[in-house]
Design brief:
Blueprint: E1 2-7, E2 18-22, H1 31-39, H2 43-49, E3 60-64, E4 73-78, H3 87-103, E5 108-112, H4 122-136, E6 156-161, H5 164-192, H6 200-211, E7 216-221, H7 223-229, H8 232-238, E8 246-253, E9 261-266, E10 268-272, H9 292-307, E11 312-322, E12 334-336, E13 342-344, H10 352-363, E14 370-375, H11 379-385, E15 390-394, H12 397-410, E16 414-416, E17 434-435, H13 443-452, E18 460-464, E19 470-471, E20 481-482, H14 487-497, E21 498-499, E22 502-503
């Protein structure tokens, strides 16, 4: 979709649909809605006075202008109660408006960011609106062959403002939002892809393509190189599959040579059957999504490079399938990790933490200022927090707070789980240093406790995205399926931490 930002008035623009907003329970109109209402002789105030439109969150009314405006349609969307207003609500409202307009087989829309009196900076408002439109219109359709001509797409979104200085600020913020949104859509695409089309090699190729032309150096380690490195935990998980493993390293050097790296680590299990400890068949088809953490890392590095963030960043994605087979690793096996620590296999369905253990150890080679890993790691996290919340654990309070602050802006909810010493007892090995499962009790936490043993003492946060990575019911700007969770969170964290080359 083409994003246009230009000087002008919404009352004078020629468009198929002009979008305005209204707060619930307020008799008077504000901002652009009031100006359009006056121009068209009270069309909007009439539907409010008649009770047809109240402004409740995401409520939409489409009014045909009948020539009183250059815009053919007025689309009024509710923001809910003013006291509850947030960027997340603005994001969702514009997503729903864009979806409604698309359903009318209309390919363009226009709006003004004049919402009346709201407590939100212009750049934040712009980003929320653009993200809502772009993310809300996402469709995954490459494998649809029947009635492809009926798939509706939108082509143009215009934002207008009467002040030249505001136009410049909006244009910059819209470009930022477009870059971040495209990264999210990229992540959604590769998570949505079936496992036969997104093998470890395919994922590595996506990383290479993502790096091309973006000031990102991409190196992909093959099976022999992984073996030479001593990443036996990653190698062990891969043994049951005919598809060879890959270890993806993405380096973006946008800061000074002396500046420390931030390391992002993403789980890249392109299909997880559970291995010898095989999963139930129900919902196993969704296990193509077990590389959502890796997808988020690749996408976040891509976005950071496109934004030109003044920092050094490395993205690490260990990628493999986890399948049963004659060569597959087994319960009772012992693997020697890259760190030199040994791991006793209790269940082969706790494979994500094994490949992350080697990747986290590798991250230490960069002597990073911080390590953040993302993984669809445990069903236990879904049991604890549900489908819409990211479980957070970590060893550094400042880093955790930075993640919380980023989440408050992006609307990607995080909740901290404890990493107390008592949980370490549950992962102590009998025949090795550690075992890869602490059992059912506190399963999400013991998985985090296990990962903590491979972080090398660097500031570290673990984000378990098992719940929100794949949705069975759509949300306002997240269609059913792959959400791309974590991309906006990581990018906002990076933007917050480094502004004009200075750590805030």
């Amino acid at each position: 979709m083409k994003i246009n930002v230009r000087k002008g008035k919404l009352t004078e623009v020629t468009t198929e649909a002009a979008v305005v907003t209204h707060f619930e329970g307020e008799a008077g109109l504000g901002g652009a809605a009031a100006k359009l209402n006056e121009k068209c002789g009270g069309f909007i105030s009439e539907i409010i006075s008649q009770g047809d439109f109240t402004g409740r969150l995401h409520q939409i009314s489409v009014i045909y202008s009948h020539g009183c405006l250059p815009a053919k349609r007025l689309v009024v969307v509710g923001l809910g109660k003013r006291v509850d207003f947030s960027p997340e609500r603005l994001r969702g409202a514009f997503s729903k408006a864009a979806q409604q307009i698309r359903s009318l087989n209309v390919s363009e829309l226009a709006t003004s960011l004049d919402f009346g009196s709201i407590d939100l900076a212009l750049d934040r408002a712009t980003e929320a609106v653009v993200e809502g439109v772009l993310l809300g219109l996402y469709q995954y359709t490459p494998f649809k062959t029947i009635d492809r001509e009926s798939i509706r797409e939108m082509s143009e979104f215009t934002i207008l403002d009467g002040e030249e200085s505001a136009v410049k600020a909006i244009r910059n913020a819209a470009k930022t939002a477009e870059i971040v949104s495209e990264a999210v859509l990229f992540a959604r695409d590769i998570v949505s892809a079936p496992a036969n089309e997104m093998t470890p090699t395919d994922l590595a190729n996506e990383a290479k393509a993502s790096a091309k032309g973006r000031n990102i150096q991409c190196r992909v380690f093959d099976t022999e190189e992984i073996k030479e490195l001593g990443m036996n935990a990653l190698l062990g998980v891969s043994l049951g599959s005919e598809q060879p493993p890959r270890f993806i390293v993405l380096e973006y050097r946008g800061g000074k040579k002396s500046s420390p790296f931030i390391a992002l680590v993403g789980k890249g299990i392109t299909f997880d059957s559970g291995g010898i400890s095989i999963k139930p068949s129900e919902k196993m088809d969704q296990m193509k999504t077990d590389m959502a953490g890796g997808a988020a890392v690749i996408a976040a590095v891509r976005a950071a490079a496109e934004l030109g963030l003044p920092m050094n960043l490395v993205g690490l994605v260990p990628a493999t399938e986890n399948l049963p087979g004659g060569k597959a690793y087994k319960p009772g096996d012992i693997l020697k990790s890259l760190s030199g620590q040994t791991i006793e296999i209790v269940t082969t369905d706790a494979e994500g933490r094994l490949i992350l253990a080697d990747a986290l150890t590798y991250a230490g080679r960069y002597k990073p200022a911080a390590i953040i890993d993302l993984a669809t790691l445990t069903g236990a996290c879904i049991v604890a927090l549900g489908d819409h919340v990211i479980g957070m654990m970590g060893t550094d309070d400042e880093l955790k707070q930075e993640i919380r602050e980023a989440a408050a802006v992006t609307g990607e909810k995080v909740w901290e789980l404890p990493l107390w010493e008592e949980y370490d007892e549950l992962i102590k090995g009998d025949a090795a240093d550690f075992k890869n499962s602490g059992g059912r009790a506190g399963g999400a936490i013991t998985a985090g406790a296990f990962l903590s043993k491979f972080t090398g003492g660097y500031p570290w946060v673990h984000l378990d995205i098992a719940g929100p990575a794949w949705l069975t019911k759509e949300k306002p700007y997240i269609p059913k399926g792959a959400s791309g969770v974590g991309v906006r969170l990581l990018v906002r964290f990076l933007r917050n931490r480094y502004r004009e080359g200075k750590r805030r």
